[in-house]
Design brief:
With 175 residues, the protein is mainly α. The chain has helices at residues 16-20, 28-46, 59-63, 69-87, 92-109, 114-122, 124-137, 142-174; strands spanning 4-6, 13-15, 49-51, 55-57. The strands form 2 sheets. Strands 1-2 form a two-stranded antiparallel ribbon. It has a two-stranded antiparallel sheet with strand order 3-4.
């Protein structure tokens, strides 16, 4: 027997697989319009100002020049695509990778000068748009996302443990 879920529009039932699918209940035109919006947003944030034929910078790099608030504002704007991806039913591993991309962009972008160069190179919005599209098409292998997150966690653990190990070494040398 097939599992069904009632729809709000009428009392008929729709197969549960269709209800759980990304964009269930939305018209295809709405989906295309939102994808076009996020395509333009990623372009605006990461590639709006061309530098040569293949590279550009966007509003994210320009906002990053404002000390303190610029990178936070860029991170908030970038969060719209993540929220949309969540609403579309993108797998959790891919969502976490998207959050990590924006987090890396926001945190490292806050470092004076070096962070501004990093903002230009990292382009988290373009990366996240590619992750989003791959997940929607079903071609995205979430094992790669989990692998990226594991490497990120190991690097973070190393960064946190280095000062602790250094403090222990200094205390042993002094005592």
């Amino acid at each position: 027997m097939r599992k069904t879920t009632p729809t709000r529009a009428n009392s008929s039932t729709v197969p549960a697989a269709r209800v759980d699918a990304p964009y269930a209940g939305r018209r295809a035109m709405d989906r295309e319009a939102s994808e076009e919006f996020f395509d333009k947003l990623a372009w605006l944030m990461d590639r709006a100002i061309p530098l040569g034929r293949r590279f550009g910078i966007g509003l994210d790099a320009v906002l990053g020049l404002i000390p303190g608030l610029g990178d936070v504002a860029g991170g908030l704007i970038s969060s719209f695509l993540i929220l949309h991806a969540h609403q579309a039913g993108i797998p959790k591993a891919t969502l976490l990778r998207m959050v990590a991309n924006v987090g890396i962009d926001t945190l490292l972008g806050a470092i004076p000068f070096v962070g501004d160069l990093f903002d230009i190179a990292w382009q988290a919005n373009v990366r996240n748009l590619e992750l989003y599209r791959g997940a929607l098409k079903g071609t995205r292998d979430t094992r790669r996302d989990w692998g990226f997150l594991m490497v990120l966690l190991v690097a973070l653990a190393a960064l946190v443990s280095l000062p602790v190990l250094l403090a222990i070494w200094v205390l042993r040398a002094v005592l």
